[in-house]
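Hey, quick one: can you model this chain's 3D structure?
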Amino acid sequence: MADTVRETERKYEADGGGALAAGLPELTGVGPVASVVERDAVHLDATYYDTAERRLARDGITLRRRTGGDDAGWHLKLPVADHVRDEIRAPLAEGIPRALRGLVRSRVRDAELLPVVRIETRRELRHLMDEGGTKIAELAVDEVRATRPSGPGRAASWTEIEVELAPGGDPAVLDAVDAGLRRAGLRPSAAASKAARAWTETAPEDEAEPSADKPEGKPGNKPGNKPADKPGKKKPADKPGDKKKPASGATGGKAAPPAQPTALEAVLAYVTEQVRAIVELDPAVRRDQPDSVHRMRVATRRLRSAFRSYAKVLDRAVTDPVGAELKWLAGELGIDRDREVLTARLHEGLSGLPRTLQLGPVRARLKIWSHARRQGSRKHLIAVLDGPRYLALLATLDALLADPPTAAWADRPAAKVLPKVVERDFRRLAGRIGAALATPQGAERDAALHAARKAAKRTRYAAEAAKPELGKPAKKFAKKMTAVQDLLGDHQDSVVARGALRDLGIQAHGAGESSFTFGLLYGREESRAADRERELPALWAKAANPKHRRPLHRK
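Sure thing. Here's the predicted structure for all 555 residues.
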């Protein structure tokens, strides 16, 4: 069983070791620190694991097996924010625990995890206490010795200081201690982690230093990929819209205007963002983190939508099969997510009824119905994420980013292409809205409104992809499309909820229970759907106003 600890800490080093040689500064009275309690020194011995290409390090992740101290075992650290990481702990064992392997699978894939550095530490601990005698932070002075477990390498030694916030503590404590340490000549560590510094300082003299001890910021730079900061098959100077730097003096000393991005560069940046989201959300989905399944599913939908909308930028002969696999993944994710959304809606409806109208064991029946489906879906989802089909999809997405399949409009200026695509998707949406409103109420209109919802989502995603290039007009337009999508989504959720309520009513009746409450909830959902249908024409008239689209077409 793995446990998770939220770790908020800051690391420091001294200029030439001078500050540490003179001793630590007095921290009593610094901010809320009322006293400092020294603890016994401990000896820690940790071996860090990564792939040969250092895929974990590139994403700011560390995996280690450590002995010594009160938390000996396997530790996986996943970045959350600046200075904040989630440390997932598993018991000490010879091999990497299965639970931790799963959490790094989206990065590691089928690559072998190898011991890359060994770090031995003598740690002097100090507890920083408040006036009530409660520990608010822990300060550690670490004397570090690093080596490489195998292969050539040098030994490296250094001393650093870590200040870690106590669980549930106020981050302002770290700010106060930070000021005290800086006044004493300490500075924030330049290395992202001990493992990153150890890798650098133990490198053989002739080893080229990797450029990615910290997470890459360039689109497409994923482990195993070719660099993709300049997407496409041509050099930037060959692309239409690019401007060559003039010869010295040609512009009177003025700098040349920046080259305009191509449609390929704009679309590929958006696609890269969604691929990265899928990979980074994988561990959160496995850990059942709030909203993680929904966010991962949205990333798959945005990718599919981008492939369809921007088919004249990325070749559909290549992206269509990828889109089919993304649709499969979204469906697998939806088994859990759809049940979660539906259950919340049914509970919300039930909570809105007076107790006198809740006849029979309706809450118990709803709980049993929800729990039975969720248990099976969670196990199934983890099996999907561990399966070869999902890993093959991730590899395919990597290959697509590394070597984009270009189409006819790929090299055209993004400012020309993106508005055309957004406008085309909007007109498609307008046709579906009109068809739905012209359809008589009933199952056919429900289906037509659901189709319109999908079109609204696609239009919104096309506008979101255009935001970096088109700016506020695209952002405002996407917001209008989101409002339309939300209204149509609430209508579709009502359609699904009515189906579930009908099934629950049949089950209750068959068990000899009253089905009155489920019928009442059904009627309320029917009324709610009718309200959305009445609201749609006015909302659509506002969203479809040409003034919202005109600014997208910049001259």
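One thing worth noting: The chain has a mean pLDDT of 87.
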